[in-house]
Amino acid sequence: MSTPVLLLFFCQALGASIGAFSAVWSEIAYLRAARHGGVDAAERAHLRVIARGLRFGMFIFLLASLGLVVVAYRLQAAPQPALSAGYWTSITLALIVIGASWALSRRRIAFALGSAIVFTAWWFLAYFVLGWLPSFSFGAIAAFFVITTAIFYTLLQYGHFLATRTRP
Q: What is the pLDDT of residues 117-128, one digit of tens each?
């Protein structure tokens, strides 16, 4: 692999990892806010930093993905990435993150469900880019995503229940 391709792979992995860790950080911040029943000024500043991390991660990821397609086209690589199921899986996951985040910001989806979708999509994206997600077909990954989202929805709801139940 050439240096530009390696750099773009690194940037793609960096963007997905920043997004995934920011998603964890946002869930922890949400549970802290739920524990005492509101968002104070310090937590609001924290949430702004987390939102910037999520936007920065997605920007780097999408820019690197586009860069990989352009470089593969310019080098006339035999398997074009835009024609592979893996590429469309990563783009679909990115669109799920963007769509669910938009729905959350407009209150078109329940917070718990939207949060679980975004959290799971970021981690799927990170695992996929790093090569840690098993190589399934697009449909199998979609089914795996739905099941994993349901599991994380349950876990996040239980965490919220515990945080609000034990108020001081």
A: 999 999 999 999
**Cα angle for residues 99, 66, 132 (degrees, 5° grid):** 75
**Closest-CA residue to 53 (of 20, 83, 30, 82):** 20
The answer to whether 85 and 137 have CB atoms below 8 angstroms apart is yes
Q: Say whether 106 sits in a helix, a strand or coil.
A: coil
In sequence order, which residues have a C-beta less than 8 Å from that of residue 50 and are 6 or more positions away? Answer: 22, 25, 26, 29
Tell me the two tokens of residue 43: 């937590």
The full set of domain ranges for the chain reads: 3-165
Judge contact between 157 and 112, C-beta under 8 A.
yes
How many residues comprise the chain?
Answer: 168
pTM of the model: 0.86
**Within 10 Å of residue 17's Cβ, how many Cβ atoms?**
19
User: pLDDT of 52-88, one tens digit each?
Assistant: 888 999 999 999 999 988 888 888 877 777 778 888 8
Cα 2 to chain centroid, rounded: 27
